[in-house]
Amino acid sequence: MQTEYTVRDATINDLPAIVEIYNSTIASRMVTADTEPVTVESRKKWFFDHSPEARPLWVIEKDGQIAGWVSFQSFYGRPAYNGTVEISIYIHSDYRGRKLGKFLMEYAIGECPNLNIKTLLAFIFGHNKRSLKLFDSFGFEKWAHLPNIAELDGIERDLIILGKRIEQNKRRELN
Computed from CA positions of residues 131, 96, 74, 158, in that sequence, does the dihedral angle turn out positive or negative? Predict the structure, then answer.
C-alpha cells in the first residue's frame, strides 16, 4: 500500500478536500456530533491549530486525490497534558473498505515517539462498531463510557473514550 499512497502534512489548499471528507460522514450519524455540514471558513482555526512538529494533520493521497486524513489534536489545552492527543481518522467514501484506516493508524502510532506523544485518545460513538473494532485491534482500551451523552435525530447515543499508551523508546526515523 505504501507505494500506491502518499502520506504528507496537509496544507491550507487541502482544507476544502478535508472538509468535504468530513462532511460526507455527517449524515451517517456514526462518526461526528456535527449534525449539519461545516464550511471551509469555519474549519480554518482548527486547521491552524495543527502543526507538523507537535499536532500534525496528515493527508493520504493517491494519484493526486486526497483519500483521507488523520489529525492529532491537543487534549484539554493545559501544559500538563502535552503528551496526550486525540486522534481522528476520516476516509473519503471512494476509498472506504480498503484498509486505509488501518494504514493511517499504523502511521500515526509510529510517529508518536517523534512527536513526544505518550497517550492517544479516541472519542467514538458506542454504536460505531467498525471504528471501535479498528481501535481495539491496535490495543486501545475503553477508558470511559459516557451513556446517552449525545442526541442525534432524537436518539440518545453513548460516547466511548478509548486510550492507548505509546512506548517512547522506539523512535522512528523521519523521512
Answer: negative
